[in-house]
Fold Ribonuclease 3.
Amino acid sequence: MTRVAKKLECRLGYVFHDAGLLEQALTHRSSGHVNNERLEFLGDALVNFVIADALYRLRAKAEEGPLSRLRASLVREETLAGLARELELSDALTLGESELKSGGYRRDSILADAFEAVLGAVYLDGGFEPARTVCERLFVTLLADLPDADSLKDAKTRLQEWLQAQGRPLPRYEVIEESGPPHKRQFRVRASLADADATTEAQGSSRRGAEQDAASQLLMSLQSRHA
């Protein structure tokens, strides 16, 4: 085992019996046939369960919706990549030449997948309880500082709930323009209301993203008028 891998074990608080599992967990698919994709699949399920279980215990009175939003905020790519950086996983990754040249060791998707793969490797190496312990230790700060679940609702949901509370019809979203090459499309979306002269437009690299931005703008406009 390399010195970098040994340092990673110290940061994880877990020593592997099978060093090959950790090596595989840190190997991106660009580096060869034996890589961390299967371990990432396993680790993804493990992280989701451990965090769901922790939230169930921490928020004893919370319903399914808020619990789901909290879990989604904790296991999203950005959060996992941040935890991977705290572990300094990028120093231990094995990448193919193309990913090395493009700075793949800094990419959120690669770091998040490697983080999950490492936890999948811990599970295979030591069983569920050691994997749970490592996972909870890595998430301990995030679990201790959970946000209000309502603050995690996306803009379209918040707009819908606000309108329903006012007894008003739901908004309509329509794509009014698509532009750019196939690999880099841009969508312009309009959000409007049937019972008022209120419309907003937003542009994004995905239809969903543009809809969320348009909904956010429309909600702020309506709340400002209502106030």
The chain has two domains: 3-147, 155-226. The longest strand covers residues 172-179. The mean pLDDT is 90. Residues 31 and 97 are 8 Å apart (CA to CA).
